[in-house]
Amino acid sequence: MAAKAFAVVAGVGPGTGASIARKFAKAYPVVLLSRNPANYEPIAEEINSSGGAAFGISTDTSDSKSVQSAFEKIAQQFPDAPLAAAVFNSGGGLVRKPFLELTEEEFVRGYESQGKGGFNFAKATLPLLLRGTGLEHPPTLIFTGATASLKGSAYFSSFASGKFALRALSQSLAREFGPQGVHVSHVIMDGVIDIPRTKEYRFEHPDAKLNPDAIADTYWFLHTQPRTNFGYELDLRPYVEKW
Amino acid sequence: MAAKAFAVVAGVGPGTGASIARKFAKAYPVVLLSRNPANYEPIAEEINSSGGAAFGISTDTSDSKSVQSAFEKIAQQFPDAPLAAAVFNSGGGLVRKPFLELTEEEFVRGYESQGKGGFNFAKATLPLLLRGTGLEHPPTLIFTGATASLKGSAYFSSFASGKFALRALSQSLAREFGPQGVHVSHVIMDGVIDIPRTKEYRFEHPDAKLNPDAIADTYWFLHTQPRTNFGYELDLRPYVEKW
Amino acid sequence: MAAKAFAVVAGVGPGTGASIARKFAKAYPVVLLSRNPANYEPIAEEINSSGGAAFGISTDTSDSKSVQSAFEKIAQQFPDAPLAAAVFNSGGGLVRKPFLELTEEEFVRGYESQGKGGFNFAKATLPLLLRGTGLEHPPTLIFTGATASLKGSAYFSSFASGKFALRALSQSLAREFGPQGVHVSHVIMDGVIDIPRTKEYRFEHPDAKLNPDAIADTYWFLHTQPRTNFGYELDLRPYVEKW
Amino acid sequence: MAAKAFAVVAGVGPGTGASIARKFAKAYPVVLLSRNPANYEPIAEEINSSGGAAFGISTDTSDSKSVQSAFEKIAQQFPDAPLAAAVFNSGGGLVRKPFLELTEEEFVRGYESQGKGGFNFAKATLPLLLRGTGLEHPPTLIFTGATASLKGSAYFSSFASGKFALRALSQSLAREFGPQGVHVSHVIMDGVIDIPRTKEYRFEHPDAKLNPDAIADTYWFLHTQPRTNFGYELDLRPYVEKW
């Protein structure tokens, strides 16, 4: 019997990652990666207690050894299983500072979190995704982008260089692995996401923040696209966002 | 009782437009616009005989009078009704020629079809879309783009200038009408679409053409996004497409 | 004896066009095109009285017949002469209005001025530029872009669709005529230009407007690039401009 | 008496860096940075023996300590002197490999060389450039980009993520330091440069490689632009390049 397909979400906190995990858990067992177990435990519990299957692994995606160790555990749990979907949603790496006050460590943090984190995640998931080209939906690797993926604003050199690097990676992977049947996408969040951390951000208009469940719906939709119609890049923003 | 919402698709032939019409007809009565009645008649019939409601109006979207006359007929059919979705999918305007052999008429054709056509369609549909902001899904105006929306290739100055103009229009409308609750999107087809006209195009790989039904699924998905998460631009291509 | 090379500048008023004409007049006789003779007469006089050679022709670049008639006069003046440089700097076409108040005529004006104007100018100048591939500097065709060449802002659908169309045209021509030795460039003005018409615009900082003479220096520099190093697109902005 | 302004070029080999150094040496004493002294010694000698002033410092721009030590030497040589121009032209970091064969070290190399290298160089030069806002030409910081600055091609994830990161950095710096009078530019080389290392690349057409002296002319031209007209991004390619 063929091993059952599963999904992996990196960057699971109480916001977007949780919504994505919940959504994909309706179809697949889901592995939740986050540095801090407190981030994924409530969601894993919630999924498990509502008929789904999920477990978390404490992982620092910017650290290749941590990622390797996580995927060894995953291999034990899902031996030879194809990966149906992998979502890189790691936050972190956001520093906002006048350039001359930025330390090397702070500058590099954007890349560590996004560029290198994305690399480690892609390196670990692509061999498993390639096993899944016969599944109902083409195996899918989705990267979460931001306004800073397209624009290097003043004071944002660290985060923007990380997000630009992640976008370069995603393009390169889409061009290499698309023809092998893996759907690689890059979704740009151009706005504040409505998560616990942004509760205090108030806007003049209602509905001015991106809804994380609706982000998850978009990721799921991309996942269901057939290989004839791979969507690569989509920008999402609240209706009142200035851009 | 409130008037029932409907949808309009411009550029209905036996390919993408037909698939979009079929898809939206599952939820709304659909008006089909095309210059040639032979283009929409079979689809209208098919929709009507399978439980939906559709009718066509012979319309040249590049001609403001023709568009005005079409929307007068629509107003009679759907008095005061909100427009749930409007899709501008007009083809035409594609000329491929060395620049010095291009006549003024041929150059302008790309703009007439795409830029001016898009303007006329937006001008007629936006007042009706604005009536629909209380509907289940935010009222949606989708423009079909192409590779030539982003790249002016040699010999394609006519079509590319039309598609660039259409993209400018769509951006401007997204920025003006998004805050009013209308979802404006621009979807880029980066590949050959699998329609009767492209039957003879053969590729080394299977599934090398964009599937029109899957394009329609994407348009429908964009339509269902809430106003917190308006997707603006998405590029679609077959998995083996070089880009 | 070989005919002497000359230059043509379209869109000569008291601002950028005049500066470009003055600059190129140091090397070539210059033909000045503008609808209104009052626009080019003072500059022609100034150039002629300071050792250069210039004359103007009343031309509407959006009207192919007007352009044709202008280039017949040019052919009489410079029979068989190669064209060293052609600059398309036509302004006009700028309408700023809520979309639903925009008439078809107003919307199309952006394209007429920019897209079609650029086409007519390119059609007339390219055969003459192709004669100039043996000159000291590769023959050069430069188009003046604007912020609206890259961004369709709310209320700017007319101008942006014209400027997007012009950019598409310039890309297509660069790809077709570059290999034939003609240097095609597109220069984006991202800021207010310091010309008589913008005198009243006041900014907090000094030097907050683009200097037209410095724009002319940039155009001249692009003209002097060898064919090994054709610069295609450059964005210019005042140091304090937000972008 | 005010200290004399000088220039710094990072990434000086026998190609583009040498040409840039020679060009700027006509106006300023020039400091040449390269890991390998064999790279800058011949150029320093050549400049010194032909009336200019130049000296090299063995520097690894990806290593902050190495950069710091280099700029301590520079401070001794040019105490309190303003920096007129700083050019980041470091090559390196180019790996071309199927993604699954790429080691973490190889992936990160692109960023180390470009992103972090650019950061270290900017961090060291910006305080000196800010001293130069009263000089004849606005102090200028130029970054050398590549095709991979805009496109993540298959097999190029390492280099492209480094070049994307560098572009993000350059945008962020342009937006922060432009208003302070420092001209930040990013120049994209879209083609093979004609340097010793590319001697063996043969093309069908003559002049098919970018000429390094003409690149230097472009950098110098950007340096001479007044603060009213800062050029930010320019793409250079040989006339026969496909793009």
From TrEMBL, chains A, B, C, D:
Name of this chain's protein: Oxidoreductase
Source organism per UniProt: Elaphomyces granulatus
Sequence intervals crossing the membrane: none
Cross-referenced SUPFAM superfamilies: NAD(P)-binding Rossmann-fold domains (SSF51735)
Origin superkingdom: Eukaryota
One family name in Pfam for this protein: adh_short
